[in-house]
Each structure stands twice: as structure tokens, then as C-alpha cells.
Amino acid sequence: MADLDKTYRPDSVEDRRYAEWEAQGAFAPADSGAGPGEANGQPYTIVIPPPNVTGSLHMGHALNNTLQDILTRYHRMRGDRTLWQPGTDHAGIATQMVVERMLEAEGVKRRDLGREKFVERIWDWKAESGGTITRQLRKLGASCDWSRERFTMDEGLSKAVVKVFVDLHRQGLIYRDKRLVNWDPKLHTAISDLEVEQRETRGKMWYFKYPIEDRDGEYVTVGTTRPETMLGDTGVAVHPDDDRYKDLVGRHCMLPLVGRRIPIVADEYADPEKGSGAVKVTPAHDFNDFEVGKRQNLDVVNIFDENAHVNENAPEKYRGMERFAARDAVLADLEALGLLDRVEDNDMTVPHGDRSGVVIEPWLMDQWFVDAKTLAQPAIEAVESGKTRFVPQQWENTYFEWMRNIQPWCVSRQLWWGHQIPAWFGPDGHVFVEMTEDEAHVAARAHYGNPVPLERDPDVLDTWFSSALWPFSTLGWPDETPELDRHYPTDVLVTGFDIIFFWVARMMMMGLHFMDEVPFHTVYIHALVRDEKGQKMSKSKGNVIDPLELVEKFGADALRFTLTAFAAQGRDVKLSESRVEGYRNFCTKIWNAARFCDMNDCRPLADFNPESVNLTLNKWIVGKVAEAEAAMRGALEAYRFNDAAGVLYAFTWNTYCDWYLEFAKPVFAGDDEAAKAETRATAAWALDQIVTLLHPIMPFITEELWQTRAERALPLISTPWPQYAESLIDAVANGEMDWVVRLISQVRAVRAEMNVPPGAKIPLALKDAGPAARAALDTHNDLILRLARLSEATSLDGGVPKGAVQDVIDEATLVLPIADVIDLAAEQARLEKEIAKQDAEITRFEKKLANEKFVANAPEAVVETEREKLGEAQATRQRLKDALKRLMAAA
Asked: Has this prediction a pTM greater than 0.90?
């Protein structure tokens, strides 16, 4: 036990306390033998969304991991065998690019090194620099079981990946096919839809005339935003109900520049209302056209190579041209032939690689695909039947929309870093998919009748493939481990909405297929962290807030509490430095309350029994502790994190610090030694409960106060969660003290509204009060006079004097004569001026929100902010009007 410093300094506490927790094995589940506690609780498991090994902590990570840590610490204290499984993702493209750039600085290219040496360099880089984000998560206070940290490329997870691929292939659920992929011509790999960034741009729509076969001088006009791809056209599509083209369906037109005869087909993809109503079809270079081509049995002509240069399938003139140079040449040649009909401006989105920044090319190539449609069916049923639920529930609609329209999942990537596909090709191209190369040779010998050379597929698997196995591969699968038996299925997944399809859905598919159970019972989807104006954070806007800078400036607890307080379901978090500073002040308030207790000898007593207190004041605060715990627990278990924070903030700052400790001061200064002793013990006990209840959200300051103020059997992180008997809530004590708090609060509010000088003491008369109110007024008269700054507080049986304002409290009326301390006429003029000001603000906000263009074009968060401001202005106006009404009645 030691005296508390005058101020709380997070920088002297956080690293020290975190190191102690790690050394104690406090993050390990009780069943592991490493952590404290008994192994008799229910398993509770969260798997961390594995951050990229290349990553650094951003505000999204800070929110996501704060919420996971709150749940983890809460369930650990509740006695559950709690595992928060950590790990990182190998992040194929991102990591390969980091190391390639590092090599380029040394004047070395990846292909100069060769695959084996390059992959070795990546492992070297990971050993040296790959732990950045896990160190940063520690700074945030994340209490993961780091002894179980996994990496998607470690030996155990790699074994799981290979087994899943081989099993799915044998079940016919993984196959090789020639389909369109998102091709990055700079990185030379297919990329997932998640790695494609859609950029809005003002482009052009070019209209070409294709000559109709055997109809001299007649053309069909088609529109395109990509003229260069016309070299690969194999058809023209029109809508079957479009009367303009009915006589052309089944005929052919001639493809200019190429001379290819291509059919005119009827397909509902063509939109009669858009452009000319006829569309060119390039199955090899457009995802929609590929589907049209399949339906209409059109040829597929690929005109680009891996660099997006025109290949040998186009006329000789264009071969070797870069795609945009080919565009210029095609346009010039069509115009020279008189076949360029018109050009229009066109607002459009163009896909770019989020890593390379280049325009992505839909490209036809042999790739490995997962039959996602088959795997999706049980995953859809699991959410429909409630085996897994989404919170907030509306995200189920997003999940269903994606899953019911799911396409084959391309899982091969043309990279060197990642899980190399376990497939070997024989001399004739026959493929052997096996667990090891030796097994592939055995299979090849059985197939060919003699040994043959095999060549392994050079591609690696999509990063999301290994991530899809995360909930069970991290627990030891395919081996039958105790951890797998105990902690699968996991309890809750905390993640962002942007990866519901890319990760959540795929974990659902893989978990159900390989474990026969959903991977988690609940998916909590948190919102985005935006800036204080509701704008999305981005480097280009210069509004990115670095969580580590806020931790450095205000402490991790202040940041964690801020994120939690604003983490309302379905609403984005609007973050500003001033808000974090505000919750740093909350830390200061708690610290000062502890110092006040110490200075008044309020020390925790090991044998204190809250049911034994006698004073109404102490019965009241004991009951308020029980109420706060119940409300906080209910909020957490419903994933209403903001409500949990709000309950604890209001109880700590208002009920305990502003009211209870103020009410206790006369007791501490009095002569009743028994009352003093009971109140000191109660104040210390209630502060301990506050520290305990706040620990999941604010772990550092609470652990420091817990261990500094008394000798403890266990650190706070391992201390059991408190359980309170319902009998602790005393309705009579609650009613009496709550009434005193409301009375003082209402008097203060009236004083503020009427601009009564702070130093002026005014009388209070309580009119028409019942027996309980009169008794409370008498019992707590000294407190009421001091805290409401009154000259007297009495009951009133007669009429209301002139110059007195009135307010209602339950059955009684508060009567406050103020004519002697303020100028009623001047105050009336001030209130009228303030009301007019609010009227103008309300009109301004209403006009803005009535502007359809503003509402349609502004970000949703900005519109929501304007609505909030309107609501605040309306509430302020109503409060001012009520005050004016009271003032005029007094006059």
C-alpha cells in the first residue's frame, strides 16, 4: 500500500502494469494451467481478426480491439475460461510488396533472387519487423493470450490449409477453370474484389457503328467506355423486347478493324433505356460480358497479355501496344473509317488495384476456384435458423444478399509469398492434388504406370483462404487438441462491416464444412471511426488520427473509454482529440476521488459487508453500486458498449464523486465516530467496486488504484466479478437520497437559467409537500443549503410570493424568490434574445436538411451530424422557453 501521486501519469503506469500481467500469465485461460483462477467456468472464446503482419495500428484497429478486450476482461473476471486468440495474417500482396521495395532500394529485383531466396528474405523481414502491430496492441492494453499467438503461414496453420485444399478438391468443391479474374498488370497477379478500389471519374462513352452483314449502309450502334476492347468483341447484344432491333436478332455484323463476323443476340443484359440499347460483348475482358457470352455461346477472344499489352489475337498493327495507347489508335482508325458515331461525357467508376494503383484488367486465365455456392447453403441456413446471429441484426441482410448471389471464389494468386497450391502437373498437364510432393509422385505413378517428372503449380492461395480457417486452425485443427474441443465453436466475432463477405461468410462456410458447427454464435459488427465532422478518415483529407499519438498524449484508458462511449450500435464513431481529452479528465476525476478517500482515511476493509450499513446515505450508495453493475452487465451482454460506458461514467462522476462524497464530507468532519467509520468503509468499498466495474474498459488506472490502495489477494485483472444481492437496493433510502439530489439539481438549474449570481444565497420554500418530502427536507437541510447555495429551506403552506419562480418536484412545488437578486425585466429580455437566436439556428438547419441535393450528395455521417445539431437547437429553445415562462409567472 502506497500514497497516490498528486496526478495520474499513464506513461509511468501502463507499460509496467502490462508487463506484470504478461509475467503473471494473466491472459491465459484458467484451463491452460498458466493463468490464475479455477478451471470450472464455461469456455469463452474470441478469435482476433488477424491484422496484416505489415500493419500498424489505426483507429479501426483501436476500436475493434478495445471492444474485444472489454468482452475478454469481463468474461475472465466472471470466471469463464476465457481465451482471446491472437495472431497475424501473412498478407500476401502487401508483404511481398514491402519486401520487393526493400530489395529495390538495394538494387535487387525479386526475379534475380529466385523464389526460394526471395521467400527467405520475407521470413527474415518478418522476424525483424513483423511484430510491430502486436507491440502496438499491447500499448492499447489488449489482453490476448500471446503465448498462443499464431501466424497464417506457421507450420500448424499451413498444414490445415493444405488439408482443406486437398479435401475440397477430392470432394469436387475445388476445381481448375478458365474464368475472368481481377488482374493487376503491375503486380502480375489476380486480386480479390476487396483489393479492388473503385475510383469515381469523369470518363467518356464512345459510340461506334458496326456494319450489318448483307445490309449495305446499315449499322448497329454500340456504346463503350473501353474502345480498345472492341478488338476482342465476339457479339452484339440487344434486349429481347426492344422492337428497334427485333429484325436484327440472329443476323451478324462485321467487327471493324478486325473483320470478324459476330452475331447479334437477344439478351436481357442489354438495357433499352441506356445509350443506343445495343451493347458490344467482349467475354474475355468484362465480367458481365463473360456471363452473356456463356449464355449465348459466344467465342472468347483474349487480346491482352499479363502486362495489359495487346497480344497476338488482335490485328498485327496493334500487337505490343499498351492498352491505353491501343485505345488511341483504335479511336483514330475508327474515326478515319467514319465509324465513330459520337462521344459523350460519362461519370463512371474505374477499378484500381489498392496496392499498385493501376487500372485492373478483367482477364481470362486458368485459375483455381472454390464452389462457393455449394458451401454457402449451410452457412445461409445457419443464420436463418439463428445458430449465428448478427448484431445489429440488419447486417444479416447484407450477409444474405452476398451469400444468395455468390459466385465461384478464385483462390489462386500469382505471387511467391503465401501457401503454395498443393497441385503438381504431369507431362500432359494432368493435375495431381496431394498433401505432399511424395504423395503426388505416388499418384502420378499409379496414373501413368511409371515415374514421370512433375511440376508444381507456382501459384499461392488467396490470403482469405487461410483466414477462413482461423477459428479452428488456430486451435490446432486438423489435430484433435484439447483447445479445439474446449474452445470451438467460439463465442463472438467482433469485426467491421466491410469484410462480412470476404471473411465472415467464408469462415462460416469453412467452419460448417469441416467442423460441422458454426464458428461463432454471434457476429458483432461495429461501425467506422470518423473525424469529428463525420468525415471518413483518409490521408488525402489530412484528417487521420493516430491512436498511438492519443495514447501517448492522454493514456490508453482515455482513448479506450472514448471509443467505447461512442460505440453505439449502427452509428459511426465521431472522434476528436478534445473528446479523448474529456475522458482523460474522467481518469483524473477517478484518481482525485481515490486521493480524497485516502486523505479521509477511507481504506478498503477486507471484512466489509455492504449489507451491514445503517446510515441512509451509505445504504443509498451501496444500492446505487448494485444498480450500476446490473445496468452495465445488461448493456455489455447485449453488446451496447456505449450504454455500458455511459452507466459507469454517470455513476462514477455524478452519483459517487459529485453527490456521495459531497454528502459524506459533513460526516467526516462530524463527531459521530460510528458514522465516520461506517462511511469511510463504505466510501472505500464503493470506490473498489467502481474500479472493478471500470476495469474491462479502463484496465490500467483501475489496476494501479486496486494494487496501490491496499494489499490484495489477486491483481484486479484476475479478481472475480462482483455479485450483489438484490437486498442491497434499499427502496426507502433510494427514494430519500434521490429526492435530495433532484431537489438540489433543480434549484441549481433554475439559478443557472435565471442568471442568479453564484454568490447570492436565496431562500427556498417547498409548497404542498407530502410527509416524506418534508421529512427529507428537515433531515438533510444543512446539505441542501450548502449544495444549492440557499439562505433557508422551509415548507410553505400559504400563497406564492411575488417575484418567485416555481418548479415542480413530484407532488410539491419549489418556490424560489429571486426578485431581490436579479433584474427580472433584463433577464426576460436576455431569454427572448437567446430564443430568437435558437429560432434562427433551427431555421438554418431545417433549410439545409430540406435541400434534397445536400441530403443526396453529402456523406450520411455529415447529414446525421446536421440532424443532431437541429435536435440540440430545438431542445435548447424549449428549455429557454420553459425558463421564460417561469420568469414571466414570477413577474
From this structure: no
